Structures are given as C-alpha cells and as structure tokens.
From TrEMBL:
Involved in transcription antitermination. Required for transcription of ribosomal RNA (rRNA) genes. Binds specifically to the boxA antiterminator sequence of the ribosomal RNA (rrn) operons. Belongs to the NusB family. This is Transcription antitermination protein NusB. SUPFAM superfamilies: NusB-like.
Amino acid sequence: MSRRISREKALQALFQIDLVNAKVERAVDYVLEQSVLEQTDAQFTRQLVTGTVEHLKECDEYIVRYAVQWGVDRLANVDRSILRMAIYEMKYVEEVPHTVTINEAIELAKAFSNEDSAKFINGLLDAIRKNELVIT
C-alpha cells in the first residue's frame, strides 16, 4: 500500500511539473511535505519523479509510437503523467514487475481520471510491455 501512495505522490508532483512547469525538487518536496511516508517510500517517490523527468523525451516517444492518432499533447495532463511515470518505471525500476506497474497505473487512472482513461492506459502500457520490453 505504501508504494501505491508513493506513486500517487509522484503523480501529483509530475502533474505540477507538467501543468505549471514547476521545478522538480520543489514539486517533490511539496507533495512529500503533504504526506506521511516512510523514508524508503519517499525515496521511491523522488526516484519516480526525477527518473521520469530525466527520461521524459524517451517516455514521450513510446507514447507517440503506441498511442495511434493521439499525440502526447492531446492526452489529458493526468493521463500523460501516469503514462510517463509507468513507462519510466517499467524501463528503469527493475525490482518492480511490469504487470504490477501496469496495474498501479490503471488504479491511478481510475482514481484521478476515468474508466476510459484506465482502459486506454492499460492497452498502451501492455502493448509497450509486449513489444519493447523483456516481459516480466
């Protein structure tokens, strides 16, 4: 459960960064100040945010490749942030199985977006998993 909260906090920071071009450190610090996370969970939040931002161009390239007729800019801000974070996590956070990352992204979409977004995110991430990544 604590990793789920870590992902929620990371999503909130990424949303701020995307929407108002907030500074990465400030956005992370702000969302962490608003929560009570264990140090390891706070570190996971920070890793997700900084890693996603560092690999933003690569994550967006995956979105463009797999979101047929949906450019990155056409996606809802929250959906874009969820996808970017999940793609980063699937590619670079080896200790988390891809299926767990996808399920967590779906749950974030259900909580912060809508059911249609959850289905879209599921399909896109599963296609990336099957076609681009070593399946775990």
